Amino acid sequence: MTKLQNSELNRLSVDEFKKAPKTPIVVVLDNIRSFNNVGSAFRTADAFRLEAIYLCGITARPPHREIHKTALGATESVAWKYFENTEEAITELLSSGFEVISIEQTDDSIMLNEFNPSANKKYALVFGNEVQGVDDKVIEMSKAVVEIPQIGTKHSFNITVSVGIVLWDFYCKMSKVNS
């Protein structure tokens, strides 16, 4: 077994990425404090060829060297937009036909393994602040709240871990539905 070199991975160029069909998901970052978390979200969004990332509130915006450290160029491939507040982003997404799903722990959340995305829908997945989570107003604007099952002693994942878990789950389920 030999590890593949980058040149053997047949990845798209930035121009090819921009022209390629996208996975119908927008990631919404609701007041994310860490530049590294923002960069990691960009990199994961690139990996799943998402439509866009919406950066809201205090969430840092490119270009910034701390974002670039973890994004590794994904800020050039993934479309992004900034909003003063997350409610504005959600309003725009709703008017564009996206189903808004907050990733949070609530008394009415659906476990990720039990949520089945539809092949005919576009999704906006909202990930919240590292300490406060998704804003309550945004949760109220959401069609559903999805929670990642956990069985350890900690009450949450790091946001970038959550982004990776949820996007992988949605990608697998949506690919299966579309195949």
Would you mind describing this structure in some detail?
By secondary structure, the protein is an alpha/beta fold. The chain has one domain (20-148, 156-178): SPOUT methyltransferase, trefoil knot domain (Alpha/beta knot). It is 37% helix and 21% strand. It is built from seven helices and seven strands, in the order H-E-H-E-H-H-E-H-E-E-E-H-E-H. The protein has helices at 14-19, 35-47, 65-71, 74-77, 86-95, 136-141, 159-178, and strands spanning 23-30, 50-56, 80-83, 98-103, 110-111, 122-127, 144-147. It has a seven-stranded parallel sheet, sandwiched between helices. Helix 2 links the parallel strand 1 and strand 2 (50-56). Helix 2 runs parallel beside helix 7 (159-178). The longest helix is centred in the last third of the chain and has 20 residues, at 159-178. It is globular and about 50 Å long. The mean pLDDT is 95.
CATH class: Alpha Beta
Q: How far do the termini sit from each other?
A: 30 Å
Q: What is the number of helices?
A: 7
Quick one: biggest sheet?
Answer: 7 strands, parallel
What low-confidence regions span 5 or more consecutive residues with pLDDT below 50? none
Mean pLDDT: 95
Count of discrete structural domains: 1
Helices and strands, in order, run as HEHEHHEHEEEHEH
Please identify, by name, the CATH architecture.
Answer: 3-Layer(aba) Sandwich
- What global shape is seen? globular
Q: Helicity, in percent?
A: 25-40%
Question: In CATH terms, what is the fold-level topology?
Answer: Alpha/beta knot
Q: Label the structural class.
A: alpha/beta
Beta strands, count: 7
How large, in whole angstroms, is the Cα Rg?
16 Å
Q: How are strands sequenced across the largest beta sheet?
A: 3-2-1-6-4-7-5
CATH homologous superfamily caption = SPOUT methyltransferase, trefoil knot domain
The percent range for strand residues is 15-25%
